[in-house]
Design a protein that fits this description.
Blueprint lengths: L2 H4 L23 H4 L13 E10 L3 H15 L6 E5 L3 E9 L5 H12 L1 E2 L2 E2 L5 E5 L26 E9 L8 H17 L4 E5 L5 E9 L14 H9 L4 E2 L2 E2 L1 E3 L9 E3 L3 E4 L4
Parallel strand pairs: 7-10
Antiparallel strand pairs: 1-3, 1-6, 2-3, 4-5, 7-9, 7-14, 8-9, 10-11, 12-13
Length: about 270
């Protein structure tokens, strides 16, 4: 693993000093163990679309709807304009494709660039983006980390990231291979009895494998020492952070390269919210 790859992804090292005190959610909780309902027969898929504009702040959904209506009346090319909204913002898009390499996606991107009004391009910088339309916990697979949000929708939770898979832009692994290898690792840990999860990044070819669920009481805010017995056990079982199945080396002190490197330990990361 080259040192340059170390910086290509970043785990969310937590600032526990600033955390509020949510209700406990240790990975030994019966609620967590019961969170193994069967996968829906039909799951929504990540799609690619041509991004026309984004809106954030108060009223972002209404602003996006107004723009979508305007687009549909502007050109036949924009008849299939659609909106993807999240809590903090909305995107206006056109087209739905399985891959950014789809020739139809490339043609649509070019067509959008040709749309003009009063001699000026209406969309001078449209781009293809990945969109994850899943919004509900039940939209996610049984092993996916976001599925726990059905039990704890707003609570601040952490999980121990023990493994990451990615092609790091090399093209050596496809997105499907990255996802499959992370899911295989997660399934193996579950067979060993660990409460393991997998999380797939939407806009990057990165999948992570994590263990357990913890809150801010799991670590002492002043000393940084682990207080949760389950977290202590997990760190003993997973002493090193793996990247594509290999131990990740990191500088002992980035300011003093002469000190050499050490094997990176797993990191607590925050469970994303829907």
């Amino acid at each position: 693993m080259k040192a340059s790859k170390i910086m290509l992804f970043s785990v969310l090292v937590l600032d526990l000093l600033g955390c509020s005190a949510p209700q406990t959610s240790e990975n030994t909780s019966p609620l967590i163990r019961s969170q193994t309902s069967s996968e829906p027969q039909e799951r929504l898929s990540v799609v690619w679309g041509v991004l026309l504009n984004t809106f954030d702040g108060l009223g972002h959904e209404m602003a996006a709807q107004r723009m979508a209506q305007t687009c549909r009346s502007m050109s036949p090319i924009l008849n299939n304009t659609w909106i993807h909204s999240k809590r903090r913002g909305s995107s206006v898009l056109i087209g739905r494709f399985r891959s950014a390499d789809d020739p139809a996606a490339r043609r649509l991107l070019g067509d959008v660039r040709t749309i003009e009004r009063n001699g000026r391009s209406v969309f001078p910088r449209p781009m293809l983006v990945r969109i994850d339309p899943r919004k509900r916990p039940e939209d996610f697979g049984e092993m996916e980390l976001l599925r726990v949000r059905g039990l704890f929708p707003d609570q601040t939770l952490y999980t121990l990231q023990v493994e990451v898979w990615s092609d790091f832009g090399t093209g050596e692994l496809s997105a499907a291979q990255v996802r499959a290898r992370a899911e295989e690792a997660c399934a193996r840990l579950r067979r060993e009895g660990w409460t393991a999860y997998v999380h797939h990044e939407v806009d990057r070819v990165i999948s992570s494998v994590t263990v357990g669920l913890y809150d801010n009481r799991s670590i002492d805010a002043e000393s940084g020492l682990d207080l949760d017995a389950a977290l202590i056990r997990a760190r003993k079982r997973f002493p090193h952070h793996l990247v594509n199945g290999e131990e990740l080396q990191e500088p002992i002190d980035p300011r003093r390269p002469g000190l050499g490197t050490r094997r990176q330990a797993p990191q607590l990361v925050e469970v994303p919210k829907l």
